[in-house]
Amino acid sequence: MDACDENLLSAFVDGELPPHVRDRVTAHVAQCPRCAAQVDELRAMSNAFASMPIHKLSQIERARLHRELDEQLDAPIWRLGGAIGLIAASILVVAATWLAAIPTEKPVAPGRVGNSAMASAPSDWDQIAVTQFVPIGAVDDRIYLADSHLDEWMLAGLNRSQP
User: Fold this and answer.
1) How high is the pLDDT of residue 30?
2) CB 59 within 8 A of CB 52
């Protein structure tokens, strides 16, 4: 045993280890004060439980215990089934929302609806919404100079639209 392992110490105290592992744990406990203290605590607790009187259960107590155990054994299956049902319902809702959001037609160029032209030119907001992002350096600096005043232009547009 190279490191402190509480599970091995508990099995060591309970006498559940094979001889070759028990010998390694014995050697470790002899050198490790922390593990030695924990083994002492586990032995004290085990002795305290061993000294407790055990009362025999009455027929009624035994029947009640069996009934409770049977009910508890069935409960996890219902909880698991309910959790799986909720997960499946969530997946269906997300999938349906995703399918509903998929466009049914190909995107149309700005200013056109289907094969016919729009009755009026698109608003500035519509034009910006369909404009693709152009990486920096791909276009000359004049566009970026205009973009530096975009916030003022948007604020003016918002102020015009409010009553």
Assistant:
1) 92
2) no
